[in-house]
Amino acid sequence: MPGEPVFLDTNMWVYLFTDPRSAEDRRKQNIVQEALSNHSNIVVSTQVLNEASNVWLKKYGLDIDQVKSYLKTIQKSAEVHLIERAADLPGPGSLRALQAFLP
Q1: Source organism's superkingdom (predicted)?
Q2: Rounded to two decimals, what is the model's pTM?
């Protein structure tokens, strides 16, 4: 349902903002783009923001200004919850973790 919260985990944001290295990465990136287009209630936790920052800085070697730009974009696209509040969101049936779609 479009109004239900949709939680995007760290990997989802990393796929969205990095260049795909394979057809499989492109497929995953498309899933995230579709979720953002079709759902107005995107949720992310502060933990996800921290994890994504570390991946971009350490694994992808991005500079801090680029990472800050990504974080600002995420904050404009999603409702940011402290980890405690994100864990309190309703469970299966109302909070949909899209990670399940990414084997």
Answers
A1: Bacteria
A2: 0.74
